[in-house]
């Protein structure tokens, strides 16, 4: 075993902290203490009385759990390497994303979203029968009870999509007696009970899909259509939203494009919204409540909301000729560029290239797409962005395929959050076989001193 050797100059003590898989345990750091915390300075004495801790605002270098679902990292490539079906023409680093250790490029080109959903949650690609079983279960749970319909219908049609979806999901949770029972029993409902958890995961995904479709229809005065058991999750979403009718087959163009888009958004390690869901889940609440916690986070402007804000930024730029002044304003911190930079991937996000492959032909007529291309081109050669490891992420282009397919701006973030929900719930499911540990971050206490 390898060790981190720590010499504490305050006490002249030495410590050996075990290193395993390039991690150290925070509890091992907590073994470093001061023998005497008495001090005239009250602020110092309060903190010195505690074990040594690590301040990591924003969790930039802190892991909160062990996972085998998704990994994102940079890999070095040489000029003659062919990596993940992508021919590389220059030396450097590129971002890599693997779901259950399978490259996202392979999954993107070979499978449909249902396969990836099954892979994330149940650790393996599904058989045809398994896919049919999940379709049937999703369909049964996506038929909304009257309570849910009434709650969403009570909103004015011009209400915020976000608020309506929160209300609809809460109404679904109210209508599910098993979800509600988690708050009224001492024994954990789902911890260690994956059979019950799996059924609850399917219901939660179905509730989210039905809620988004109900909100979409209500805001536009359209009729909601109940799902059909032979259709995929994406196919039923399109049916419920009124993009296709009950008598027609799937819209191959729209459904094919969404299958690829949803694979790109399926999971990205423990994102802010996934962490919010897991934070809620650590209290042993139900998965609908976890999904609501993730939903609240997902609509934030620094997370899923960045997709819509990136597009609105292109609208404000107006034309390609204005990109240069805009980029200068970004560097001067007078403007913000959404869809650029990533907390984990400090090299190019492979999804940013893949999303271009599924952009419908209609996108070529969107002048804002040319602005997005110019923003990316300018940033890729600007030392300010290059030296800071800032590259386009999938959100930069996220709105364009949806708009070309006929989705309006106000519903795009919600649909993308739906595509992320099974991945977040896969992490929740993974936590159910780990020891129960309530997430409870600590703080560094600094009292306000009197003037």
Automatic annotation (TrEMBL):
SUPFAM superfamilies: Citrate synthase. InterPro entries: Citrate_synth-like_lrg_a-sub, Citrate_synth-like_sm_a-sub, Citrate_synthase, Citrate_synthase_AS, Citrate_synthase_sf. PROSITE patterns: CITRATE_SYNTHASE (PS00480). The keyword Iron does not apply. It holds the Pfam family Citrate_synt. One of its GO terms (biological process) is tricarboxylic acid cycle. Keywords: Transferase. GO terms for molecular function: acyltransferase activity, acyl groups converted into alkyl on transfer. The keyword Transmembrane does not apply. GO terms for cellular component: mitochondrial matrix. Belongs to the citrate synthase family. This is Citrate synthase. The lineage of its organism: Eukaryota, Fungi, Dikarya, Ascomycota, Pezizomycotina.
